[in-house]
Amino acid sequence: MEIDFNQLNELLNAFGLSLNIENKIVTFTDIETDRPMQSFLFYREGFSERTKAYTDDEDMLLKGLPFYLSANNKFYKMTISIRDNKIKVYDICKSEMLKTNLWENIELNAHERYYTLDETTFENNNIISNPSFTSLVTDDSIIVSSNKRSAKLAFIKDPVTEDFYSLPKEEAVQLIEQSKLFKDTMRIISPELAESYSSAKKDIIGQSK
Q1: Half-sphere exposure (CA, 13 Å, Cβ side) for 189?
Q2: Is there a contact between 89 and 11 (Cβ–Cβ < 8 Å)?
Q3: How far is residue 86's CA from residue 80's CA, in Å, rounded to a whole number?
């Protein structure tokens, strides 16, 4: 998915990071602590074991291959390419330890015509919550899934909703409203879809009362 630099910064801010590139030196900062995060990648030569290499070189980190950030209880995996002033985001994944044995994993996967956002909470390695959101940017619709049930909210010229599978649209809206990042990412990546959803949400909530 191709975006501009302002959108990239907004997207990283939503995930709790800020980005600074100066003289080809890349610095990611944890917004919550205002501390820089260590950036690294893995590589292998021939049949050797993978080697972990710490680097802040733009040409190493931002060339479309996976790289990683870590600091304290947070861990990121990202794949971003910046070439000839073209910025492409392939994925951003944030894992955070909320407390002992409780982890939250938020993963965005971007494609040309849509993106997905999965929010999974683990406790003692058991999944206790796993809503998934798909923003179909060109189709003007949202698919929400949870516990093997799904619903599709489709918006055409006028806000229209359609039910699919077994997740009622009212529950789908509740999951969107409770989501950590879906509304923010939708606002950044597909603002027209975000506006359509915001308009239709009032009608959906009204129907459920």
Answers
A1: 30
A2: yes
A3: 11
Q: Rounded distance, CA 178 to CA 34, Å?
A: 26
Mean pLDDT of 167-186: 92
Query: Sheet holding 25-30: strands in order across?
Result: 17-22, 25-30, 35-36
| 35-69 burial code (b ≥16 CB/10 A, e <16) | eebebbbeeeeeeeeeeeeeebeeebbbeeeebbb
Distances, alpha carbon 161 to alpha carbons 137, 138, 187, 189, 193, in Å: 16, 16, 19, 21, 13
Instruction: Tell me the pLDDT tens digit for each residue of 84-113.
Output: 889 999 999 999 999 889 999 999 999 988
The neighbour count for residue 141, using CB atoms within 10 Å, is 21
Contact 126, 120 (CB under 8 A): no
What is the C-alpha separation between 182 and 83, in angstroms, rounded?
A: 27
